[in-house]
């Protein structure tokens, strides 16, 4: 997320108003609210083999993690995880290309821009299950087989594309067009300008969109559930597990998926950080 | 971009063709080089637009058509009848479910707006270091990257009878016996929604707040405005786009939910979409479609109302 803030310089003598402490307290309480239940499931996922889904802990073990990887026991978690990752990668790539291009188009008014804008809003606010229902139903009417890389991909794009578009609006709004004009004046072709000026400046935002779209897809279940074929994605497999079993396996899956998210965020941050560092080097050179 | 600025862009031939200006008269003059500006825009926006038309608009149109169909256990029969709508709108349970969902939406909206605005305000105006601000933002966002399903069921061991919260309360001697209303109740549903959706409010509002020049607030202060008046007359009006966007997101998420209500209310409350998915599972597509159309129109009217209050488009696409 790209958020700038006030860039005033503060002296050490600047006293904090009381509202600072009130809001800081609220923020702290919110973080505890946010992490409390998550922390409980991380702890409970290490429950001993005879333990249940609530406290107390009956010993500590990795049994439930082993169960996650046991094939065919209840659900095939590793296979659905692979499918989810593949789908998320594809969704993320398509979202970046299409929404960045569209956001660039929206910098000018063009005939039909209002219609596209309101379609994107409508697609974003449409109750999720209904999107999947419509697509699945449409496939049924046409006699097509629903599948992971057809209907499920489509259902997820109706969610990630508007998200990508609106996120890019925020990025493009901050973009100073005089850079592009300078590139023109220096004789850059439109391709060179896009490749060497526009895209590099927008890159942190683009990476944000890629990461956002990836996780939106990776966690998505409401849109996908009626548009998926025979092979489930990971959230749908978890969904199926909830109705059949209540064991700490669910928590172990939660701990694992969170770790995967952390890994993705970590890698992205390192990439962005290195990019900024390189840019800073170029600036000082 | 202001009105005068959009005039400037209008005068420009096209975003792509503009680049050929410096390369001399030949590039400029040949008609092949000059793609009309509307075509460039459509080439850029085309893939997104066509995906939304095929995968969003067409299926919605399909609902509309099928909602007038007749059906029995064997199949669907093309017709133009209003029975599906009449049945839906005259069933008392429909109204009950809509009221229940609206009640959740209103409560969750109020809580997330309060939390979201204050958190965004804290992060943008009170946190002075950009690095700390980024870290705090990430702290808010990280749980968002865990599956909503997992985040929902995470509340079960926390709120349950022998859950972490009850244990803490009893260990601290605040309560003598476990509180029963915590789990599988409307309370649990609201808590889970707030947990899931507050970030949807924080993001857009923080984006709006970050565009406010702090000098404006100083000016208001210097002109004698109290903290409260500065907030009401300067900050809130300038952040209304973010407030509207966040409200739209939270509202539509609550109205479209079927999982949280099912999982956390313990079967005491129903949601519109869970009612709908029962019909889908029973293959009753025409009534399900009618139900879907009513929900879509309802949500569309509410969103249109919120967008009427704030011209989101003008603010977003500058």
Shape of chain B: globular
Please tell me what the overall shape of chain A is.
globular
One letter per element, helices H and strands E, the order of chain A comes to HHHHHHHHHH
The unreliable regions of chain A are 1-13
- Helix share bin of chain B: over 70%
Specify which chain pair forms the largest interface. Answer: A-B, 105 and 115 residues
- What count of helical segments of chain B does DSSP give? 17
Q: Percentage of helical residues of chain A?
A: over 70%
Q: What oligomeric state best describes the polypeptide chains here?
A: heterodimer
Structural class of chain B: mainly alpha
- Strand arrangement, largest sheet of chain B? 1-2
* Main sheet attributes: strand count, strand direction, barrel closure of chain B: 2 strands, antiparallel
Mean pLDDT of chain B: 79
Total of DSSP H or I helical runs spanning 4+ residues of chain A: 10
The rounded Rg of chain B comes to 26 Å
